[in-house]
Amino acid sequence: MKVLKFGGTSVGSAQRIKNVASIVCDQEQKIVVLSAMAGTTNSLVEISECFHKKDPEKANAVLSSLEQAYVNHIEELYRSDVYKEKAMQYMLERFQHVWSFSNMPFSVFDEKEILVQGELISTFLMACYLEEQGVEVALLPALNFMRITVDNEPDMEYISKHLKVLLEQNKEAEIYITQGFICRNAYGSIDNLERGGSDYTASLIGAAIQAEEIQIWTDIDGMHNNDPRFVEGTKPVDQLNFEEAAELAYFGAKILHPTCILPAKFAGIPVRLLNTLDPSAKGTIINNEMESGKIKAIAAKDGITAIRIVSSRMLLASGFMSKVFNIFDTFNTSIDMITTSEVGVSMSIDNPTHLNEIIGELKKYGTVDIDRDMCIICVVGDLRWGNIGYESLTTDAMASVPVRMISYGGSFHNISFLIRSCDKEKALQELSKKLFNDPKA
Ligand code: ASP
Ligand code: MG
Asked: How far is the CA of 116 from the centre of ligand 1 (A)?
């Protein structure tokens, strides 16, 4: 069985919901995971903030306009009054539940309960629509099987066991529909898999039932080989290895949530990225295969800060690195790139919240300097060290760009450059020219 996930824009209007229905109805049994309709989760976050700040008037305004938008979607989506009424009643109930938090002391638990409403509504609307079309459909409540542990990790055993029971109870269904993003925690309270977590849901479900394939449907035809906002003529990449996809998902390729890769990779289930607006386009397949001798894609991530510490004490001293890393660990800040010399180490971070405290601690061990507004450029492909020529090809392409750090050899799949954000566009274009137009690439 396949698992198909459709994101917020893919179910963002009545017409889009109809499109998704036409994609999923092909007589093959499948599980369909849906996000909330586009913009809904953001509005629910805004409403929660209003409750938190004791501003029920603004909350009411946001909620009312959200409700009105759904009234219009429902009006457009269904043919019969029976289904219009059914959908309307459910939607109003869900939003009344949201409003029920308006005059209470507001906690993070309440916010979590508010955030799940978007997915509950989108899946209900889709299930009703399919039912009206005469499709055999079963709505599986994610809150009954999707669960995380006390460490916020998916409870695979629980998920697998409870999901299989639900599937068994609804054996006749052609289409199973369930909510992305939402789950319960180890204590049974309502929780979520963090923003953008619907991809993760699909991957966890795929792993739990050993699916044949996990499909992530968005509105672009797969993972592109460079950023189409800055480079002309980018193309979708046909195939990526899980490791390559993991690098790209982190380094800015918004199409796939980074957490989605791991469960699929461990379970050995291919992930296919497809386009709702062009369902016949080939898209990108992510699997365990490794195409040798090929550079696949380039991605960039902005908002990076580089930190360098130089210390003569580092020379031949053991334990220096662990002291440095401990400081980052204390402030819960992860290091992305790292390069070292005998007397210094440079690191990059993407979360500068605790930068001042980190600098303060580092200064105890050496001279510290900082470069802000930096960008990591990541080149992904077969970069095994035995393959000669590929590092020089990429560094050649960067010949006219000032490079602050280079990282190579951390994996077999990437080479990364840290540059100023203002040089990003040029770097992406030069790399594309050299890597995708050069016959050697
Ligand atoms: N609706 C959630 C969000 O907007 C989850 C998702 O769309 O993946 O973050
Ligand atoms: Mg998403």
From this structure: 10
